[in-house]
Predict the structure.
Amino acid sequence: MPLTFIDIEKQKNWRIGILFVFLILMYFLTSAGLLFSFFQMIPLRTHFGKTLLFSAERLFLLFFFSTAVASVHFYFSAYDTVRYIRKNISATDPDPEDGIHKQLMNIMEEIHVVTGNRVRMQCVVIPSLAMNALSAIDMRGNALIAITEGLLSRLSRDQIEAVMAHEAHHIISGDCLESTVASSLFGVPASLVEKVQTFSEGRAYLSPAFIVTLVLLKLSQFLNMFISRQREYRADAGAVRMTRNPLALAEVLHILWRNWRGSGFIGSGLENLCIVNPKISSLDESEGWLANLLSTHPPIHKRISFLLSMAHARLSDLETKNKTAAIPAPSEQNKDRYFALDHKYQWQGPYTLAELALLPWFAALTWISTGGTSMQKASDMPVLNDIFMKRIAQEGTAQTSHPCPVCHHPLLKRSVEKTRVMQCKFCGGTLVHHNRVFRIIARGEDGYSERIRTLSKITLKKNQLKKITRSVKGSEQNIPLLSCPQCKNKMTRAFYSLVYLIELDRCSWCRVTWFDRDELKMLQCMIHTKMASERLF
Amino acid sequence: MIVVWIILGIVVFVLLWVIITFNLLVSLRNQVHNAWKQIDVQLKRRHDLIPNLVSTVKGAMEFEQDTLEKVINARAKAVSAVGTQKKASAENMLTQALGRLFAVMENYPDLKTNQNIMQLQEELTSTENRIGFARQLYNDLVANYRTKQEIFPNNVIVSLFAGFQKEEYFEAEESDRAVPKADISIRPE
């Protein structure tokens, strides 16, 4: 690392000092203004008949008062900021049982190794589909690197490492402290007020909270002028110095360029802490003295071009690589006595018993025919049911004591998108803890088959109709409510959201959600393909 | 009298310079030693993980006994190696053996569905990266230390006092210098 601790401390002191002086000046001028207005209204006259608005003593008292208020403000803004920022972005600790979170924790340790363990950094995950990352450090020395689930799920290991190294460099080099303090003075309170009060209703601009937020944000933007946009270039260079991989960071920036970076989710006052500005602004993408003064982030294309030149690569190489992974077609099997209805709702077969058991899509709820017109669910046929019983017995320790709410067979511990869930091997249902639902949705590693896409569209249409019917005719719940596998209380049934109309069973006591077969995949598909925004009628 | 003061001033200045340079070199030497110990910590972590990995994949990879044996032997050599150069060479051999094992594991799709193996592989990947980063930090510090030792007039102090030997670099192997490839494909939406 190029900087020594003394360099960092020096930088920290004078830049933070400027912010503190600004704060004193602001309070001094504000209180002087208030005092002036007050004396204009009630003029006090001395025995000489002159108005003594600003005598030396009064100015000293005013200065003393401003310094005291500024000190209190500064103390609360600079000494415990990381806690407030963490709360503001609803960040949580990574889950060690989750494959991708475990990887993130390992990467954090790797970054600690490469930085020589100079500062212990706390790594947290923001539960959002947005793609961004931010770092913060307060005067107590609490350092934080936060990354969104969306970004975490879509990047490779090397790319995540590049992001973490970039953020770690901000912390190690000390520039993060000045930006954190600059944000925390006005930006953090602004985003807190913004979070409490939503301004979506009509005439919201008249509400006091809106005015407070606006004033705080303007002050925060003013302070951002102190923050050089060069710091992002320096952090990019620092990340390359740590990881020796400029291409990975260029790839990340290229991906961030074209995706939702969290505008509306990450508070307006926290923008300068992020790897890229959550709000897309033309100022950020332009150059010149005005852009340098007002913008906290340099143009992304310029950052990418610097990194690419380090890697001896071209932008066209990155663009041609942007392709989605092919979706594997469902495998087809053949032969003998049993016929089974596959995922595409087409009869397959005939199969022998052994062949049937080996079919990847063969489940307890698969419809089976022995050749005639009658058909049964596989679990209703004793010979086939034995196959499932044997499968469950083979699972051993993966078995849990919780029964499936639909078919009452024991649920098994499984991993979906590297996240721990409980699944029923018979009916294909999945029980997921509320905290983990978002994580699974954010990931989409396995892709979606055509069947899931079609099924999602049909379900969405059907549920839209159902929703309209309910609002006209009132509630009509014909299907009995399921019992929670953990506490046995009745679960509530509701749509996932007003946009993504998938009916789910939730237990608010145990904070778990039950997804019937394919529902989790369908929800993932709807959200990723933004299916709800399509015109269905 | 003035001459005495000047001489005294020069003596004090030289003495101060000697003290400051000596302390700087000691501090840098300790940083280098600490960085070396950090590599040791990570190497120990790798040595501890390998038996677990071998025993987990042994059943599924019965036709690859040769590859597994090479990993075990390379580990044994790495554990018993003494001295920077010997240790570095033994660890590089182990890295190569592990690389071959991971390549062979690609031929066994069943292994990819095994959670334990995937976790072990992630731990080993992380350990490899940590070793790489620790080595990088060590080499950076050695370069800094060597520069400070060799520049004039610090080299005078180095020659005056014993204990400021040249530290060796942890040499990188040729395979580490492969050209990276771009991958910005977002996982399917």
About this structure: The interface with chain B takes residues 99, 102-103, 106-107, 109-110, 113-114, 116, 153-154, 156-157, 161, 242, 244-245, 247-248, 250-251, 254-255, 259, 311, 313, 317-318, 321-325, 327, 415, 443-445, 447-448, 528-529 of chain A (CB under 8 Å). Chain A has four domains: 5-78, 81-320, 331-379, 381-533.
